[in-house]
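Q: What does the predicted 3D structure of Cobalamin biosynthesis protein CobD look like?
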Amino acid sequence: MSSALFLPLALLLDRLLGEPRRWHPLVGFGRLTRAVERLGYPSSPAAEPKWRMRMRGALSVSLLLLPLTLAAWLLARLPLLDVIAPIALLYLAIGAKSLALHAEVVRQALDDGNLALARERVGWIVSRDTSELDEAGVARAAIESVLENGCDAVFAALFWFLLLGAPGVVLYRLSNTLDAVWGYRNARYLHFGWAAARLDDVLNYIPARLTAFTYLLLGHAANGWRCWRTQAPTWYSPNAGPVMAAGAGALGVSLGGGARYHGQWKERPPLGCGPAPAHQDIGRAVRLVSRGAWLWAGLSILWAVLIGVMHA
């Protein structure tokens, strides 16, 4: 019940303060990740069999996640910190305001007719090449990022906090960060990053579908459900597919399609329905995520009240 009551407070902190500008724990975790990688990655990877590379990656993931998850569990059990620590850890794990601010800069640049700035700023939040995108391409990239990160940076963190409290949200957020660093299917990380990628897939499986359902509730439900049902199975990610297909359908815009990543053209299935997105649709996507987060906050308060009444 306490987690359900802490959740709205952490969302409010994020709304008021945004991400810390300095000394963010995830920045420190990134440095720690690089140090562990130097220890765990072999000097001659070509000589390592696949199973041993995967074992090295799994041990590295465990070395990073288990002590910090245990530390979160201990902090949340200490007197005086049993309230402060869970709220602070959830606040540090979610990034709703940061996501909205990054998207707003892109939207404003397009609104001002500054395509060059819009391309530059959308490149901060997506991994595709943005230098040749037209206005619709920039808007498409921004909306896809907002919808997908709505799950990764908001709803999945809320889910694991509600389920397991402070250690749950720390375990999820750090594993998601590891996936962003090691989860690439390239020569270096295909096997070493296997454990990080699979763990993130498992932890995101239920939250991704709850996120998609949230988008349906707050948008065009029939379109969103049809797109989720027919388009999500064609997407290359089992978790991003439902989130982005349902979100695109709920917004009534067409997303997906081919994009260039690191100089290589990648064909992607279409997502959503309706016209190509425009700059104002970026704001609509941000509001969809924001309304969803506060819907979860309201439901968590309602749940806490019901539990309190049942135990009164």
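A (community wiki): The structure tokens above were generated from the sequence. Residues 135-182 form the longest helix (48 residues). The chain has one domain: 2-310.
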